[in-house]
Amino acid sequence: MKTISFIVPCYNSAAYMDVCITSLLKCGTDIEVIIVNDGSTDATAEVADGWAREMPDTVRAIHKPNGGHGSAVNAGLDAAEGVYFKVVDSDDWLDEDAMSEIMGYMREQATLPHPTDLIVANYVYEKIHENTRKVMAHRNTYPTDREITWHELGSFSLFQYLHMHAVIYRTQLLKDIGLKLPEHCFYVDNLYVYIPLPHVESIRYFDQDAYRYYIGREGQSVSIEAMLERIDQHLEVTRSMIDSVHLPADAPDPKLFGYMGNHMAMMICVCAIFLRMRNTPEDDKKLADMWDYLHFHSPELFKRVKRHPLVIGSNIPGRFGRRAGLWGYEQGRKMFNFN
């Protein structure tokens, strides 16, 4: 039995994927690393097959036509045999010392009838070209010494939400709910950290800087230029989040509903900022349509999101409101170094 399945989606990653895979292998011999080659046109397939030949008991390589990040995660989940499941992007890496305590906990859980559903740890924005880093921690939200339920959750700050890089799910939970991410679409990580939450009954947080998130590689989906170009995909993901979880019915615990409302507010805020950054009549209509969609499909969630300070600040009408929203985004970007 493998304690955890690490899934590494790869698209033209040959130049840097070795660093990622080497970091995963330091987690122990009771892991599996599933490299998903998503239709690469460089030497990614050869590198993946090389790792699989060298370490056949630990590394597997899957080759598939290009379908995007979500498609690669889907393929990895279908193949996963570990008790736990974590996605690690091919240009990122895990910290060996930080993962040591987490791996020990997962090994203990793997022997129990009901292992913890969700494990959360810190992640770090690594801007290598600037030699800067920013730790994204959750110690204000979760106790650090025990497994908890949603009822024991603390408060999230305005800019704080669960990120794909922070979470480790119990694999069978994801399989049981039939999680499938959209193909050929960016920003599906928001679905990954949102849809399973109503099915999570137990959580354990580790105040460890486990995941190192590389920021600054050319063409990354989180760059401002990419966000402006792909805002329609962000809108699509936001609508999918609304459709996939019916709130508040699917989240009877008020703490969980509160968190999911905050995450949705963040999504709407991002939609508003980038649509207003483009500033065309068509973009104004897209934003209005998004509000109508949320109101029609989830009236209670609409009321909560509408009152969120970030949403209020990013949706002030008129030229002044647009400038204020963009200024707020710029301050957040400087504060958290997220692109």
Q: Summary?
A:
With about 350 residues, the protein is an alpha/beta fold. It is about 45% helix and about 20% strand.
What does this molecule look like?
The protein is of the alpha/beta class and 339 residues long. It contains 13 helices and ten strands. It has helices spanning 17-25, 44-54, 69-79, 96-109, 171-176, 189-192, 224-229, 231-244, 254-278, 281-297, 299-306, 309-314, 318-336, and strands at 4-10, 31-38, 59-64, 84-87, 93-94, 118-127, 132-136, 147-148, 167-170, 203-214. Helix 9 (254-278) runs antiparallel to helix 10 and helix 9 (254-278) packs across helix 11. The two termini are 38 Å apart. The model is unreliable at 335-339 (pLDDT under 50).
Strand content: 15-25%
What is the β-strand count? 10
Largest sheet: 10 strands, mixed
Q: What is the H/E order?
A: EHEHEHEEHEEEEHHEHHHHHHH
- Unreliable spans: 335-339
Amino-to-carboxy terminus distance? 38 Å
* Radius of gyration computed on alpha carbons: 20 Å
Q: Estimate the global geometry from the Cα principal axes.
A: globular
Q: What number is the mean pLDDT?
A: 91
Q: Work out the helix count.
A: 13
Structural class: alpha/beta
